[in-house]
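TL;DR need structure tokens for one chain.
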Amino acid sequence: MSEREIRRALTNAKFNNSGFTVVATEIFAIAIGTGIYFNSWAIGGGTWLVLIILINFGIFAIPYLILMSVCWAIIAFVLASIFAGLSGQIVIAIIAFVIAIGVHFAGIEHVEDISYYERY
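>> reply
TL;DR here they are.
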């Protein structure tokens, strides 16, 4: 392996790690919100545990990242209404969705990188 390939791999690992930070923060926020909504530490903790386990399985990770990316697009659409018309809101929502998909894919790739088992 050349020095350039090693540098690329390290850069990719750092980027994936930052994506995972976003995914982990989302999971933590969802767990806190669920726990507060149901007024239960057990439900909040259970939500956190279930989501952490589910993102380790590709069949559940992909729907999760798509759902969360759609949520970010909706948030961007609503926030864009403050300073843009409908066409601006749509464009900003699409851009937010594309960025969120990329960040979530990086986060899921980080999970795959540190996973003990190979995925097929």
